[in-house]
Amino acid sequence: MTRLKGELIRLPLYLAGLTMLVPFYWMASAAFKPVPELTRNPPSFVPGDPTLDAFHEPAWDPGVRADQVVAGLFQRYPDVPGGFLRFMGNSLFVAAAITVLSLLVAALAAYALTKMDLPGRRVIFVVVVASMMIPWQVTLVPNYLIVRNLEWLNSYPGYIVPALAKAFVVFFLVQYMRSIPDDLVHAARVDGAGEFRIWWRVVMPLMRPALAAMAIFVVLAEWNNFLWPLIIVQDDTMANVPVALSRLNASNAFNPNNMAVIMAASLLTSLPTVIFFLAFQKHFTRGIALSGIKG
Amino acid sequence: MTTALIEKPSTAQPAGAGKRARWRRAVPGYVMLLPFAGLFAGFLVWPLLNALYFAFTDFNGVRPPSWVGLENFRRLWFEDPRFRTGLVNSLIYVSCTVTLTTAAALALALAFRGTSWRDRVLRTIFFLPSVTSTIAVMLIWRWIFSGERFGLANTVLSWFGADPVSWLSTPHWTIPLLVVMAVWGGCGYGMVIFVSGLNAIPEELYEAGRLDGASAWQQFCYITLPQLKPVTTYVVITGLIGAFQVFEAVYIVFRAVSSVGGVQDSGLMLVPYLYDMGFTKFQLGYASAIAWTLFLIIFVISMIQLRVTRALREL
């Protein structure tokens, strides 16, 4: 009886959970609707006649500009080799490179700060932690100028190098590394192992859960990163997915015929992150919990 | 967050090791620190100082910056109506978003804290917006609030016999819509933190409460809420900081033809204004003054957080 009552109280919350999904459902269904169905009033909630035209429009002819025919997503960007796949490739490559490199750099720093007797390490750590309260937008203008002077605008280094100094990752890894017994490190030292060897062979394997949690954080953040790429990307070839998406939107803002294409692109942008998240959910929520509780 | 600094004193010192030996042994450590330190100095500390310098200059990115003293800040705080609009919008948006998101996150955490499959599925659903590309999400919202009758929001209105609303071009709808999107997008994140906070509360407290005859509501008020205080502070503060930094929602959903602030600047906030000044009007000095204003606001919030967490720890 009380259980039934509990379920009844939670009913509105289940409904809220359902409405949470409405925007996603709307996106996914719109991507497969033929154009006339998109603007039907009242709207159709189930695609009556599902089609892949939003991805590849068979009737599209670049020479003919008819009203009802718009280029499918993969037929856009005729001057970009690979079209939309190229943007996904850019996003993937940049996110992967930043994740691997920034985690290595941060893990090295965290090891030096926790497991080695460095004069001044406490001051260094305080500076790193303090930097976490700087909103990164403050460095936007100067970083843009630095990257421009290095002639890295519109290039992978421009994406990757400024994103490698992640104070939060160092902070998180230091917290976790403190729980690894110093005796392990001492024992390895007594056995004559060098510091790099201890870091890589002894400490890093034990850091796996923390590294996994951070990797998921960084991958998702970089795949979705928008403002920095928006500023440094100048031609379509180097766009990542969010920038490509915003340009797609800007150039076709008020043409409902393009809505299906924009929704198809949105679907291809969010689907990988959702799958990735579902696959690694455990690590991810653990990472949030660890970082949240330590506050 | 700096409260975790207290650590065990290092016992690595062998007897008789001199100061020089200590430095020599530290060399590999500094080498390991070097990549991070270099990137940290080059792309964080140096830009930060640069931004401070630019804030006192007139600078368009092409000609060398010329020193103008406090002129940018004077203009910003005393003469610039757009900045005032942006600041007021930010304050309204931030206060509404943080209050509603925190309340929703706590309610969801209380409802779905369990380990049953239903709770886990619901938690995942509420968390999904946090991992989805903001741009994609904002494009969906843009369509849902389309002013045409095929917009989803207007369809729902029409079920109740109401006339379609042109959501995106009516200035007084801008902030409410932004708040709705932010709560939808942010409640799952807070929920996850609250769930781990709830699970850390010792069960004995509730047992004692029940023995004393406390009702569910009393248990919530006198056990759950006080025990959750540090977690709540964390959720609120990170929420505040995040909300002050909003950009994509304004840029994608409400971008007007001539500026990034939406119709009549109704969605203009600090970061959109910073972007507009810096990267569409190329007043980089002025943009840096806005950036430092944002920094100061967030700095004050972080200081309050430090104070509060410290006070809480001393309780």
TrEMBL record, chain A:
Q: Identify its membrane topology class.
A: Multi-pass membrane protein
Query: Is Phosphoprotein there in the keyword field?
Result: no
Subcellular location per the Swiss-Prot or TrEMBL entry: Cell membrane
An annotated GO cellular component: plasma membrane
Q: Which Pfam families match?
A: BPD_transp_1
**Classification via InterPro entries:** MetI-like (IPR000515), MetI-like_sf (IPR035906)
Span of domain ABC transmembrane type-1: 88-280
Record key words, sorted: Cell membrane, Membrane, Sugar transport, Transmembrane, Transmembrane helix, Transport
Where on the tree of life does the source sit, at the highest rank?
Answer: Bacteria
Q: Which GO terms describe its biological process?
A: transmembrane transport
Entry's transmembrane regions: 12-32, 92-111, 123-147, 159-177, 259-280
What protein family does this chain belong to? Belongs to the binding-protein-dependent transport system permease family.
Q: What is this protein called?
A: Multiple sugar transport system permease protein
Which organism's genome codes for this protein? Answer: Catenuloplanes niger
Automatic annotation (TrEMBL), chain B:
> Where in or outside the cell is it found?
Cell membrane
SUPFAM superfamilies, sorted: MetI-like
Bilayer topology reads:
Multi-pass membrane protein
Q: Per the database record, which ranges form the ABC transmembrane type-1 domain? A: 87-305
The portions of this protein that span the membrane are 29-56, 91-112, 124-144, 173-195, 234-254, 284-306
How is this protein annotated for GO cellular component?
plasma membrane
Q: Which residues form a coiled coil?
A: none
Q: Which Pfam families does the protein's record reference?
A: BPD_transp_1 (PF00528)
**PROSITE patterns, per the entry:** ABC_TM1
Q: Which UniProt keywords apply?
A: Cell membrane, Membrane, Sugar transport, Transmembrane, Transmembrane helix, Transport
Single Gene Ontology BP term?
transmembrane transport
The record's section on InterPro entries has:
ABC_transporter_permease, MetI-like, MetI-like_sf
Family statement drawn from the similarity comment of this UniProt entry: Belongs to the binding-protein-dependent transport system permease family.
Query: What's the protein name?
Result: Multiple sugar transport system permease protein
Tell me which species this is from.
Answer: Catenuloplanes niger
Provide the organism lineage as a comma list: Bacteria, Bacillati, Actinomycetota, Actinomycetes, Micromonosporales
